[in-house]
Amino acid sequence: MYGKNKKRIMTNSSQVSYFTLTAYLDSGALKYLYFTVVAFLYIVIVTVNVLLIVVICVNRSLHEPMYMFLCSLFVNELYGLFPLLLLQILSDVHTVSAPLCFLQIFCVHTYGTAELANLAVMSYDRYLAICFPLQYHTRMSPCKVSMLIVLTWFSSFLVITVLISLSAPLQLCGNIINKVYCDNYSIVKLACSDTTVNNIYGLISSPLVILCPVSLILYTYMRILKICFSGSKHTRQKAVSTCTPHLASLLNFSFGCFFEILQSRFNMNSVPSMLRIFLSLYFLTCQPVFNPLMYGLTLSKISLTCKKLLCF
């Protein structure tokens, strides 16, 4: 009898065509205020990131490795879930079709992996610039810059494409996701079928997309700190001016990811709903605003060029 019931559940689960996102609050007329705030935030994100991408691309003086990596980072900030989020805020029924849900998973996860990979490559670039200033342009040639940028994006897309290809065929026992957007872990938790392959792939891919970039960042900053303590005042000033925005960006992104992982793995029902939503969206909404403002204000070359462009 149990075997028949289980078979019936799995058969029904294969017909899941949509998912319900239950983390949205019934805000009534306030949803228009929330929509306006999120829409304004989206316009700001697109405007400041596109502005800095254009500034870097059109000014030959900014065609240096550090700014090319920054351009890659700003492109990634445009890559998010805001359009769907805006639709969900206005909707009274918070459902999303299965194909759109997996597209959202792809966007969210590739954004996260590409963000961390970009930050790791930028830390390596700062390490070469500070620790090997005379050999910097030889070690960081235009060809190597292009290769690192392509590797950053290709590896992120490849890892997440395989992840989704393993999750999409899973037979699901339900369609309720207690979040404001779809993510892979929520889909796997709904699975009735065997998830051993997914778990093994997760154990293999996690070190590649998390531990490897984090290890590279820690190593490069340990070397940079060593040079700063033993080097001249000019070397310390250069390290502080170029590493401060990168460290601030890294800490901000880590803060958002930490709360997202915490919320996904543990029961957060005791936390107020609005706070849970804010923390869940933090790394997807605050990082795209934080990065262009931080780099645009702290890096003199970019800020001067932006002022000239805006005055013109």
From TrEMBL:
<feature type="transmembrane region" description="Helical">
    <location>
        <begin position="145"/>
        <end position="166"/>
    </location>
</feature>
<feature type="transmembrane region" description="Helical">
    <location>
        <begin position="67"/>
        <end position="90"/>
    </location>
</feature>
<feature type="transmembrane region" description="Helical">
    <location>
        <begin position="274"/>
        <end position="298"/>
    </location>
</feature>
<protein>
    <recommendedName>
        <fullName>Olfactory receptor</fullName>
    </recommendedName>
</protein>
<keyword id="KW-0807">Transducer</keyword>
<dbReference type="GO" id="GO:0004930">
    <property type="term" value="F:G protein-coupled receptor activity"/>
</dbReference>
<feature type="transmembrane region" description="Helical">
    <location>
        <begin position="32"/>
        <end position="55"/>
    </location>
</feature>
<keyword id="KW-0297">G-protein coupled receptor</keyword>
<dbReference type="GO" id="GO:0005886">
    <property type="term" value="C:plasma membrane"/>
</dbReference>
<dbReference type="Pfam" id="PF13853">
    <property type="entry name" value="7tm_4"/>
</dbReference>
<keyword id="KW-0675">Receptor</keyword>
<dbReference type="InterPro" id="IPR000725">
    <property type="entry name" value="Olfact_rcpt"/>
</dbReference>
<keyword id="KW-1133">Transmembrane helix</keyword>
<dbReference type="InterPro" id="IPR000276">
    <property type="entry name" value="GPCR_Rhodpsn"/>
</dbReference>
<dbReference type="InterPro" id="IPR017452">
    <property type="entry name" value="GPCR_Rhodpsn_7TM"/>
</dbReference>
<dbReference type="InterPro" id="IPR052921">
    <property type="entry name" value="GPCR1_Superfamily_Member"/>
</dbReference>
<feature type="transmembrane region" description="Helical">
    <location>
        <begin position="102"/>
        <end position="124"/>
    </location>
</feature>
<keyword id="KW-0325">Glycoprotein</keyword>
<keyword id="KW-1015">Disulfide bond</keyword>
<keyword id="KW-0552">Olfaction</keyword>
<keyword id="KW-0716">Sensory transduction</keyword>
<dbReference type="GO" id="GO:0004984">
    <property type="term" value="F:olfactory receptor activity"/>
</dbReference>
<keyword id="KW-0812">Transmembrane</keyword>
<feature type="transmembrane region" description="Helical">
    <location>
        <begin position="200"/>
        <end position="222"/>
    </location>
</feature>
<feature type="domain" description="G-protein coupled receptors family 1 profile">
    <location>
        <begin position="48"/>
        <end position="295"/>
    </location>
</feature>
<keyword id="KW-1003">Cell membrane</keyword>
<feature type="transmembrane region" description="Helical">
    <location>
        <begin position="243"/>
        <end position="262"/>
    </location>
</feature>
<dbReference type="GO" id="GO:0005549">
    <property type="term" value="F:odorant binding"/>
</dbReference>
<keyword id="KW-0472">Membrane</keyword>
<comment type="similarity">
    <text>Belongs to the G-protein coupled receptor 1 family.</text>
</comment>
